[in-house]
UniProtKB/TrEMBL annotation:
It comes from the Eukaryota. GO terms for cellular component: ubiquitin ligase complex. The gene is LOC102594549. This is F-box protein At3g26010-like beta-propeller domain-containing protein. InterPro entries: At3g26010-like (IPR055290), Beta-prop_At3g26010-like (IPR056592). Pfam families: b-prop_At3g26010-like. One of its GO terms (biological process) is regulation of DNA-templated transcription. Residues 160-298 form the F-box protein At3g26010-like beta-propeller domain. It comes from Solanum tuberosum (Potato). One of its GO terms (molecular function) is ubiquitin-protein transferase activity.
Length: 427
């Protein structure tokens, strides 16, 4: 991710929409002048296609194989750099040459990129409602590299709300069906009906591990509370069998609490926040559930975040003026690991502080957004005007605009710009 200017001025909603339109325009066919003429990227969807194996009759080796002594810088870039780039950047590079175009649409590169590029690219955000009146939208952290062609996910057959994200794939809920899609390649699959009622705002997580998963199998894990009982059971969907099944595991430790949608999946575990500041954890492979208690002060809420490659629960509050306090909880007992005092430079005039309904006695309303990011330890803070990325190791702050006022009903789902394929489901 390219570094952006700190303390960027907040832009208007019109400018925000223009950025989205610019993203969409960049997905139109690209044309590039070359020595041999003009090369045009096909207008079809950006999907991986079967790679035709060709042979060099002289060396009796595959045509795409290049000996080390014959390798040029463009060959090194194509084989060893492209897998570490976000998907939108790869789409642009299809216009470099026919050779690059054929390699970028090859399923092998899609697999390599989905396992190599695991950085936070942006957020899908949407007001959560029961009648699907609000379309999703996408906030890119780098418009030039991490955009998607259809931020509202209009390529799906019905209006949806986004429930979960995992390694570049999204889980969406329609009126009667779940859908798993890749918003970059526009591939999607409809999930068969589940057996149990999951509710109007279901606590369902997409579990997808691209590493070593050539077939692109995935799971859906639904945490289903029993009516009027402090018991949660789990219904699991497997794309390999294309069927749902009820796990024998049940959780009996969630009395007087409800699950918060938009959980996270990482390292084989599904996690949900709860209204009582606990974390419901479920081992997808071994089908074992447990509740982790987070000892945070009453009335304070946070979000699940990946810190140092482990699950953490992070809270934030505005101490005074421009000073914000981060409390990071983690470990097996979810104890307080450390607190960080940061200055975000959230400058406001006295008149603004008095007139803003989201500010009480000069205190800025703020929250932590869920985040999974490989390589950099990032905490994402959302205020009434801006979104801040705070890098814990380098103590650096990057500033972005906020898509409208901070709305407690708006849900943010972290997303990675990936070429990950979706397993084709059996009929």
């Amino acid at each position: 991710m390219e570094s952006l200017k700190d303390n960027m001025m907040t832009i208007s909603s019109d400018e925000f929409e223009n950025n989205i339109m610019a993203d969409a325009e960049e997905f139109s066919p690209a044309i590039k002048q070359q020595d041999s003429g003009t090369h045009m990227v096909p207008e079809d969807d950006f999907k991986a296609v079967a790679y035709k194996q060709e042979w060099n009759e002289v060396s009796k080796l595959p045509a795409h194989y290049i000996r080390r002594e014959d390798m040029k810088i463009k060959d090194v870039a194509m084989k060893h750099v492209l897998p570490f780039l976000p998907g939108k950047s790869l789409m642009k590079f299809r216009a470099v040459s026919n050779e690059w175009n054929h390699w970028i649409v090859c399923p092998l590169l899609a697999y390599q990129q989905s396992t190599s590029f695991q950085k936070l690219s942006g957020y899908f955000y949407q007001v959560v409602d029961v009648d699907f009146q609000s379309d999703p939208n996408f906030l890119s952290l780098d418009h030039s590299a991490n955009g998607i062609p259809n931020p509202s996910l209009g390529f799906l057959p019905e209006r949806i709300k986004v429930l979960s994200s995992s390694s570049g794939l999204l889980l969406c809920q329609g009126l009667e069906s779940y859908y798993v899609c890749n918003p970059l390649t526009l591939d999607w699959e409809r999930i068969p009906p589940h057996q149990y009622y999951h509710g109007s705002d279901p606590a369902v997580i997409l579990a997808f591990d691209p590493q070593g998963n050539i077939e692109s199998y995935f799971h859906l894990v639904a945490a289903v509370p029993l009516l009027d009982q402090p018991v949660v059971f789990f219904e699991i969907y497997s794309s390999q069998s294309n069927s749902w099944s009820r796990s024998s595991s049940e959780c009996l430790e969630l009395e007087d609490t409800t699950l918060v949608g938009g959980g996270l999946y990482m390292k084989g575990m599904a996690y949900w926040s709860t209204t009582s500041n606990g974390v419901l954890a479920f081992d997808v492979k071994n089908e074992v559930g447990a509740v982790l208690r987070v000892p945070i002060p009453p009335g304070r809420y946070g979000a699940l975040t990946q810190v140092k490659d482990e699950l953490s629960y992070v809270t934030v509050y505005n101490d005074c003026g421009d000073v914000f306090m981060l409390d990071i909880y983690g470990g097996m007992d979810m104890s307080l690991n450390h607190s960080v005092c940061i200055n975000l430079g959230h400058k406001k005039s006295r008149q603004t502080l008095e007139e803003d309904p989201f500010i009480d006695n000069g205190t800025v309303l703020c929250s932590v957004l869920p985040c999974i990011n490989s390589g950099d330890d990032i905490v994402v803070i959302c205020t009434t005007e801006r979104i801040y990325l705070y890098y814990l190791s380098g103590q650096k702050v990057e500033t972005f605009m906020t898509p409208g006022q901070l709305n407690p009903k708006r849900r943010f789902i972290p997303y990675t710009n990936s070429l990950a394929a979706i397993h084709e489901l059996k009929n």
